[in-house]
Amino acid sequence: xxxxxxxxxxxxxxxxxxxxxxxxxxxxxxxxxxxxxxxxxxxxxxxxxxxxxxxxxxxxxxxxxxxxxxxxxxxxxxxxxxxxxxxxxxxxxxxxxxxxxxxxxxxxxxxxxxxxxxxxxxxxxxxxxxxxxxxxxxxxxxxxxxxxxxxxxxxxxxxxxxxxxxxxxxxxxxxxxxxxxxxxxxxxxxxxxxxxxxxxxxxxxxxxxxxxxxxxxxxxxxxxxxxxxxxxxxxxxxxxxxxxxxxxxxxxxxxxxxxxxxxxxxxxxxxxxxxxxxxxxxxxxxxxx
Amino acid sequence: xxxxxxxxxxxxxxxxxxxxxxxxxxxxxxxxxxxxxxxxxxxxxxxxxxxxxxxxxxxxxxxxxxxxxxxxxxxxxxxxxxxxxxxxxxxxxxxxxxxxxxxxxxxxxxxxxxxxxxxxxxxxxxxxxxxxxxxxxxxxxxxxxxxxxxxxxxxxxxxxxxxxxxxxxxxxxxxxxxxxxxxxxxxxxxxxxxxxxxxxxxxxxxxxxxxxxxxxxxxxxxxxxxxxxxxxxxxxxxxxxxxxxxxxxxxxxxxxxxxxxxxxxxxxxxxxxxxxxxxxxxxxxxxxxxxxxxxxxxxxxxxxxxxxxxxxxxxxxxx
Lengths: 289, 319
Prior knowledge:
The complex is a heterodimer. Chain A has 15 helices and 2 strands. By secondary structure, chain A is mostly helical.
């Protein structure tokens, strides 16, 4: 319905005009946005001989595609370990954040106890605190807890930016669920917990998926905490491992680096492609509130 | 979630003290203040221990000379005074402002333009929209590595293409020259940020009723007038929010710089966040690094205030 919005007057355009004002600029922007991915993929698939010889080979094309860079990534580096670490940390922190956020959002939005509106606002403000001003004090706290260089440090600190976001999103989602449904259940003698578990949560599944997808990508992509709190290679996450371990001295293994970048992006891209609508709704929902 | 308690409000009257306690618990669980506090407890505890406390601790650390090995003493404003007289710090403040302002000034018009294009009748619109957002979804560090390779001094594909086209005759030193490096990281930031701006503004565009455009067209409004008097005013509230987010993310950026230049050449691309990391974690001076991070707070608050009062009020209120 909304999609028809700006199409109202489009039928008046001629084909040539459309090509010039729509497809040409759109094409140019798409090339700008997609070229780095193409370059990443071709670099990862080229043998070294081709990679560093622009005279004999056109760099935009692959003459002898090879999986050599991927093979050496798996056999010569800790990449598989980083990948597993990232997956564990991401799944763990996403589930913790979702559980905490559902309870908090329900409390603020539906229980409407004293002071809940201020809490809603402070959760939004918490969401605006960037990790780059928190990592130094958090590093000292992580150290005091004895969690330094452990993946638990990440599982516990990632919710600090995930919970405000998910709570904010779920608050908006709970608001769209008709209050009458809960009232009916209350009249039928259901307790609050039964209402949350049997009525609100099943209705909020799309909201939970949105929040979950977004939380997953945010923690998969997290960098500064993982860089600060983790020091040994076997505990690193993919982004940190790729930046710190795959670059030795001045020798850059560009093929391997690009292969790592490609493989490290795949989980979020796959998840994103399955749930685009949910992802977009959480992105825009967070902004529109 | 814990399973719902089975104690119902209507218990048999003959029940003992245990049942009475259970009944009291059941009644408490119906009280919205008690239940609200209970529901908020886990999230609240986490945010107080790992968000509010670190924020306060960071401000405190900024007044101490704590290093990685020593607990440190309270040194009043020493960290701040030494930072203000530090030429590197002043350069970094300039870099951060330049990076934020220029990148945002490019991201906003480009993002709005892309949103308007995507809002028109096009084939495969949903696929296009999904693809547009990819740079924002992919881990920043990993795409930054790709930019690092694109900007390589010997094998840059951009230089190669420009030489082939005959536009330049020697390769550009993207990351070796201060101003080239600044523009290069800004380009990478724009690449990552434009999709966010475009997709969120597109969501705002889709809420504008087409009948407004039709009415304006019947009155003879030109496309520019339609944009100026319909699109822009109706979009202002969401523009305010989107650009606040974008400015905050850019100002506090760390990943992109750390992955592409590590602040080089000669500190030309160091931002406040990356310098703070270098001083505190690489250099071990936690107090000085914390002071640097604290100096970002006024800027962040300023950006929030600006968008809240400057942009939102002119629109339809809360947006």
